[in-house]
Design brief:
This protein is α+β, with helices and mostly antiparallel strands. The chain is built from 18 helices and eleven strands. β6 and β7 form a beta hairpin. α3 runs parallel beside α8, α10 runs antiparallel to α11 and α11 packs parallel to α18. The longest helix is centred in the middle third of the chain and has 20 residues. The radius of gyration is 25 Å and the shape is globular.
């Protein structure tokens, strides 16, 4: 662990932001801690005694409000060390990864994965074998993973450190629960370790001559006929369960026409890409939550969270060539933001005064200010729209869904 590598790792961790782990240390506190304890940490890394801390358990809502997803948050120190290990290992392993592997790899993206699926469909491979790996990051076995890491890593100290990362446990309600299998979701290393394990699958599929695309644990194989798809599904399932000791969700895995297959939230209908109905439903749910009237935050904070989400969602799904609902969604979003401004103006005088300041005509300002209709209705009146114009909302910081989509398509 040379100093230059650790400095690069710290810059990456700082750029990625993130919450404190079980020790409560923030990113702002790390430099002081590193200066005070750096030599001690470095010595423990070199002699093989460094012990990663357990993860802090955090639950986040799943898209569409469908339950919760459990995450583990490492300490800042563990994130920096994990990132440093990743920077050492990644070049060696990534160089030999399959061209059909896209997830968590430099200069590769989900967009590239979807485009490859589209290309296979254009070649006539219109039956999709969609295999669902059941909770892959939670169930992958450590011995399977470490045996594959050891193919290229001979340093026993480094192998021991990676093993201790995997077994460090997770803190749940004050009790450390063991992690006897699975990877540390939230750790920079997890994605690389997942790709290392699944690279065996990629190589096997290449050996068999299959057209396939994989993004982390999302896998789709394209074949020419339904009967071929059934055979491939059965044989690849056997390989995953017997050779890699992974679980395949039989209820979610399927053999379907490519038009009916959703990969990374995108479907390819014919040769046209479009986001799935489920992805768009999740989008509406998330925007509704971020623009909710009951969320007692400043509009500045609301815009920051909302715009981050909009950019992230469009980075993932802006590859869609289907744009019909976008103008409607832009209007819906602006109406919800107007409602967010309107609700805190509870008093009649406040509402009239603010509308007049924004340029609304006196008559309309008074009539709307006196109205007893609901906030959602009043957010679409002539008074609120001529006061809180589209241009004014943009000046406050609201992004346009249409503009983000055009940028994703390469038009802006």
């Amino acid at each position: 662990m040379d100093s230059a590598n650790m400095r690069r790792a710290w810059k990456r961790v700082k750029r990625n932001n993130g919450a404190p782990g079980i020790d409560g240390m923030t990113l702002e506190e790390f430099p002081t801690h590193a200066r005070a304890h750096g030599p001690e940490i470095r010595h423990s890394l070199l002699d093989g005694t460094y012990q990663p801390s357990p993860l802090r358990r955090k639950s986040i809502p799943k898209p569409g409000g469908k339950g919760e997803r459990l995450l583990g948050i490492p300490t800042v120190v563990d994130r920096v060390i994990g990132q440093a290990i990743l920077q050492v290992l990644s070049p060696s392993f990534d160089a030999d990864f399959s061209a059909s592997s896209f997830g968590f790899r430099p200069k590769r993206s989900a967009h590239g994965a979807v485009k490859q699926v589209r290309d296979f469909i254009r070649e006539g491979y219109r039956i999709a074998v969609d295999l669902d790996l059941a909770k892959f990051f939670d169930h992958v076995q450590h011995d399977v993973m470490m045996s594959r890491v050891a193919r290229k890593v001979s340093d026993k100290v480094l192998l021991g450190l990676i093993g201790r990362y995997l077994r460090a446990g997770v803190l749940v309600e004050g009790i450390v629960q063991p992690t006897d299998w699975g990877t540390r979701q939230g750790s920079p290393l997890s994605a690389l370790l997942a790709n290392i394990v699944l690279d065996d699958l990629d190589k096997e599929l290449e050996r068999r001559g299959h057209r396939f695309t994989r993004d982390a644990d999302d896998l789709v194989i394209l074949v020419r006929s339904q009967s071929a798809g059934v055979r491939v599904k059965a044989s690849v399932t056997r390989y995953l369960t017997q050779k890699l000791k992974l679980r395949v969700n039989a209820h979610k895995s399927q053999v379907v026409p490519s038009d009916d297959c959703t990969f990374l939230g995108v479907t390819v209908r014919g040769t046209k890409r479009r986001w799935s109905d489920a992805a768009f439903t999740d989008f509406r749910h998330a925007v509704r939550r971020l623009t909710g009237r009951s969320w007692g935050v400043s509009m500045e904070h609301r815009f920051d969270k909302l715009n981050r989400y909009l950019r992230g969602w469009m980075n993932d799904f802006g590859i869609s060539q289907y744009n019909r609902p976008i103008p409607e969604r832009d209007g819906w979003l602006r109406r919800r933001i107007r409602m967010g401004y309107w609700k805190p103006w509870r008093r009649v005088r406040t509402r009239i005064r603010n509308l007049l300041k924004l340029g609304t005509g006196k008559r309309q300002a008074i009539l709307t200010g006196l109205s007893r209709k609901g906030d959602w209705h009043l957010a679409r009146t002539l008074a609120t729209q001529t006061g809180m114009t589209n241009q004014w909302l943009a000046q406050q910081g609201l992004l346009s869904i249409r503009d983000l989509w055009l940028k994703a398509q390469g038009y802006a």
